[in-house]
Write a structure and sequence with these properties.
Blueprint (H helix, E strand, L loop, with lengths): L12 E3 L2 E23 L4 E6 L6 E2 L4 E6 L1 H36 L5 H33 L2 E3 L4 E5 L7 E2 L4 E17 L11 E4 L8 E13 L2 E7 L11 E17 L3 E4 L2 E7 L5 E14 L2 E8 L6 E3 L4
Length: 318
């Protein structure tokens, strides 16, 4: 039976046998990016530059905004002023140390006094190094005002505008990257019949051609009576993230009797097929057809009643 699908010619006979057919469930899938990562501000302050908007494409590490904190500039000014004062003190302390060394050679001061002068120079130099380190920290904070893209992809949303006040860790933009896939929300009663790797039928696109995807992942948590699943589809349109696409899922299978569409006839409002007996006679038998099933590009009809396995159906040659 399976070998004969799509290859039965008119005027021939076909032995009807039960065949397994797949039950499909129509749902909607939503186009999603594989990664959805927020670009966060590392310092608090005011957004002075915003270089992206929704739909822009960015590279990993690209600057998308600049946040400035006026207090950091004031801290830098304060550190610079303290450094100038310490450098003046250091210059004086070194001069005193040089004179002390000369006086020690003439025996005017003691070695203890010279050690005090040396200690004063060392203390001031240590304070200068500490302030220089503090300045580097503040400069790093200023540099961290640049908000960088965490991944290459498309900008999905920018919830802020130029002039907005942000806090450390607040999202400035959301970046979607890593390609796209279809995310499904399947009723939980069908969850047990799904398996990773199952083929998924995608509705026909603008060119009229349908596509097939692969069920890549099934999430274990049920929310609102639905199970989330991800479908990988080659060449999926990524222009609109969140777009809904009709999808058919294989949720069950059953045995059915199928005959070619050409074997069915209608007369007086009744459907019938022609059956060949063992003696070679042809009888017209009334049947109740079901849905149309496409197999190998040919249309077949399910017969609900009126035929039994082993019957030989005549394909009409008219």
């Amino acid at each position: 039976m399976a070998a004969a699908l799509g290859q039965v010619a008119q005027g021939e006979t076909l032995a009807v046998a039960p065949q397994e057919i797949v039950e499909w469930k129509a749902v909607y899938g939503q186009v999603e990016t594989r990664d959805r990562v927020p670009a966060r501000a590392r310092i608090g302050g005011t957004v002075v530059t915003l270089q992206v908007s929704e739909g822009d494409t960015v590279e990993a590490g690209a600057r998308i905004a600049v946040v400035e904190d006026d207090k950091l500039a004031f801290r830098l000014d304060s550190i610079d002023a303290r450094l100038e004062a310490l450098e003046a003190r250091l210059e004086t302390a070194r001069a005193d140390l040089d004179r002390g060394e000369q006086l020690l050679e003439r025996g005017v001061i003691t070695s203890q006094r010279l050690d005090q002068l040396q200690t004063e120079v060392d203390v001031i130099e240590g304070e200068i190094r500490s302030l220089e380190s503090d300045r580097l920290v503040v400069e790093q904070q200023v540099a961290e005002g640049a908000v960088l893209s965490p991944d290459a992809g498309v900008v999905l949303s920018v919830p802020l505008s130029r002039g907005s006040v942000v806090t450390p860790g607040e999202a400035v933009a959301e970046i979607g990257g890593g390609g796209v896939f279809l995310r499904l929300a399947v009723p939980e009663r069908h969850a047990g019949s799904l398996a990773e790797g199952d083929p998924i039928e995608i509705a026909a696109g603008p060119n009229g051609a349908s596509r097939t995807g692969r069920l890549a992942k099934i999430y274990p948590q049920i929310e609102g009576g639905r199970v989330q699943a991800d479908v990988e589809v080659e060449g999926l349109d990524d222009r609109f993230i969140g777009r809904r696409v009709p999808v058919r899922l294989p949720v069950d299978s059953r045995m059915a009797l199928l005959v070619p569409e050409a074997a069915l006839g209608q007369r007086g409002g009744l459907d019938f097929v022609t059956v060949e007996t063992e003696a070679g006679a042809q009888l017209r038998r009334t049947v109740v057809p079901g849905e149309t099933i496409m197999q190998d590009g040919a249309a077949w009809r399910e017969i609900l009643t009126g035929l039994a396995a082993g019957d030989r159906v005549v394909i009409d040659d008219e």
